[in-house]
């Protein structure tokens, strides 16, 4: 025995993690199991008379992607204390799967501390001066991180393009195509866009998604898939079993819910976990890349929103019902809050249609609130007509006032709110300064100081934020960018309404609450805006009140005289 031979004091390091895929199949699990790792190291040490095993460190269930592992840290401590000067692992990946930190240990820390490093199956033993082996093995690890780097780089460049509103996918949804002069730009494909518009129109008129698909099939309109094929685009759809891929409800739904049609480009919805995994998954909505008003819209925003509302109601009402009634999904029971549903009740050979509380229909646990369908519809129509008369009056008043005094009222209101926030901000800053005095003379502890300081900071930041928001609002009003009164036009469009249609009901009504057949409450869309406006007009003295029929009463004056014919 060569007595000049240095004796190493070794720690065997064992690690196993589900996360790293160490146990993804039976064979792998066995070869990586703690007992196998241990047996291999013991076998290796059998004929090594220069190595004495002094410790065994096991991190079971810890990932190799970082070094935040308790037993690993204890081993490093042993090394620093000089108890251990040799580390043995089965393979490099037991030591670590993360390149940068692994490299730091193996290339810098261990050599500096004179630690011998052995990775059995990778044929690495730092004492043999097999720098090359270590480098080669290391390159494998590095290779992994290199792939990952590339994958991240490609991702981030795509991400940047998406944020710029550039189309990065190979195909655009039906209705759009790529600009022949700019492959990152979406332009309208008029032929398909016409069909998209038709689909929205059909939906707004109360047709179900199923019916729309059948309707398009009957009209022999090629489905988006067939259309792409006809246009000669190389497009494969795994669901298309043959060349003739008909319209189906899910295609229609996709078109009716895709924001691309209002001009928003939404990308980056789907991702793969990393470069190694080919599986796709849908990212949470707040991680999507959204570019609003990115390209020319095919569908108006309001139309789109109404369709979303209809789709939401379809699921609440009866999805199987072929015909949709004007008020389907809008009628609510005041007691249990559930929807009221239609029921046909035969009386003396004739069938009568009623709306009644769904809870009552199912379990009788609520009263019926029963009302005849025709009666409810005629009441609602009358209420709409009155409401629209009010709206037209208001529109005339606003024109007469030329919006200006309203702008002033609005600005004054906002200025008031802004002033309050400025005061609050000043107070927070004062308190914060006083706090330091309190700390110095011992009125508050350091801990209390920190806590209070942070809470004042938080309040100050909130106040600053609000001040900025108010300033924006004021600027918007001055530059007349606020489309505050746009909703009035939606109602004004129905000024000659003689019949209650589905589309009118959806556009105008939020909900209808039926207390009983003599008491029906209609809540219109934009109700809060309407109430605010009425309040402001009352304050201005333009309106004096509302009569028992719901008609607003105009003040007698220059304006009112002019309009009373
Ligand atoms: Zn009820």
Poorly predicted tracts of residues: 560-565
Shape: extended
Largest sheet: 5 strands, mixed
Distance between the termini: 123 Å
CATH fold description of the largest domain: Rossmann fold
Rg measurement, Å:
36 Å
Proportion in helices? 40-55%
The first-level CATH class of the largest domain is given as: Alpha Beta
Number of helices: 19
Q: Mind telling me which CATH architecture of the largest domain this is?
A: 3-Layer(aba) Sandwich
CATH H-level homologous superfamily name of the largest domain: Resolvase, N-terminal catalytic domain
* Physical arrangement of strands within the biggest beta sheet: 2-1-3-4-5
User: What is the average per-residue confidence, as pLDDT, rounded to a whole number?
Assistant: 81
Q: Provide the number of structural domains.
A: 4
Distinct bound molecules: zinc ion
Structural class: alpha/beta
- Strand fraction equals 15-25%
Explain what the structure shows:
By secondary structure, the protein is an alpha/beta fold. The chain is 49% helix and 16% strand. The strands form 7 sheets. A 5-stranded mixed β-sheet has the order 2-1-3-4-5, with helices on both faces. Strands 12-16-17 form a 3-stranded mixed β-sheet. Zinc ion (ZN) binds next to helix 12.
């Amino acid at each position: 025995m060569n007595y000049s031979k240095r004796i190493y004091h070794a720690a065997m390091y064992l690690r196993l993690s589900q996360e790293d895929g160490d146990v993804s199949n039976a064979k792998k699990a066995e070869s990586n199991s703690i007992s196998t790792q241990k047996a291999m190291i013991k076998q290796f040490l059998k004929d090594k008379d220069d190595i004495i095993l002094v410790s065994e460190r096991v991190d079971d269930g810890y990932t190799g992607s970082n070094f935040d592992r308790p037993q690993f840290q204890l081993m490093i401590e042993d090394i620093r204390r000089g108890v251990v000067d040799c580390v043995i692992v089965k393979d490099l990946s037991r030591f670590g799967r993360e390149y940068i930190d692994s490299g730091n240990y193996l290339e810098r820390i261990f050599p500096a501390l004179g630690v011998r490093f052995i990775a059995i199956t990778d044929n690495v033993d730092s004492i043999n001066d097999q720098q090359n082996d270590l480098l080669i093995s290391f390159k494998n690890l590095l290779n992994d991180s290199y792939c990952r780097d590339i994958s991240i780089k490609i991702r981030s460049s795509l991400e940047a393009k998406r944020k710029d509103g550039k189309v990065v996918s190979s195909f655009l949804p039906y209705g759009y195509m790529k600009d022949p002069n700019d492959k990152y730009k979406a332009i309208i494909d008029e032929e398909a866009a016409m069909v998209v518009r038709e689909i929205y129109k059909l939906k707004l008129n109360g047709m179900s998604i199923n019916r729309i698909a059948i309707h398009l099939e009957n009209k022999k309109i090629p489905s988006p898939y067939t259309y792409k094929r006809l246009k000669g685009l190389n497009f494969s759809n795994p669901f298309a079993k043959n060349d003739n891929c008909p319209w189906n409800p899910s295609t229609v739904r996709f078109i009716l819910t895709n924001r691309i049609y209002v001009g928003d480009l939404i990308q980056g919805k789907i991702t793969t976990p990393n470069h190694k995994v080919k599986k796709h998954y849908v990212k949470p909505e707040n991680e999507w890349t959204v570019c609003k008003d990115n390209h020319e819209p095919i569908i108006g925003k309001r139309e789109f929103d109404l369709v979303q509302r209809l789709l939401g109601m379809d699921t609440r009402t009866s999805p199987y019902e072929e015909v949709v009634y004007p008020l389907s999904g809008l009628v609510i029971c005041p007691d249990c809050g559930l929807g009221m549903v239609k029921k046909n009740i035969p009386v003396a050979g004739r069938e009568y249609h009623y709306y009644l509380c769904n809870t009552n229909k199912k379990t009788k646990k609520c009263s019926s609130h029963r009302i005849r369908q025709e009666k409810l519809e005629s009441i609602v129509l009358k209420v709409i007509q009155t409401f629209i008369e009010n709206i037209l009056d208001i529109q005339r008043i606003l024109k007469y006032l030329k919006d200006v005094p309203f702008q002033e009222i609005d600005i004054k209101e906002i200025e008031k709110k802004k002033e309050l926030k400025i005061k609050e901000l000043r107070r927070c800053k004062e308190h914060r300064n006083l706090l330091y005095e309190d700390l110095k003379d011992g009125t508050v502890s350091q801990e209390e100081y920190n806590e209070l300081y942070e809470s004042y900071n938080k309040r100050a930041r909130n106040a600053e934020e609000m001040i900025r928001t108010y300033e924006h609002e004021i600027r918007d009003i001055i530059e007349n960018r606020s489309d505050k009164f746009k909703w009035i036009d939606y109602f004004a469009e129905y000024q000659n309404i003689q019949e209650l249609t589905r589309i009118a009901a959806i556009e105008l009504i939020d909900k209808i609450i039926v207390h009983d057949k003599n008491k029906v409450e209609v809540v219109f869309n934009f109700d809060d805006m309407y109430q605010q406006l009425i309040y402001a007009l009352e304050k201005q003295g333009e309106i004096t009140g509302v009569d028992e029929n719901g008609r607003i009463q105009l003040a007698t004056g220059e304006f009112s005289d002019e309009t009373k014919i």
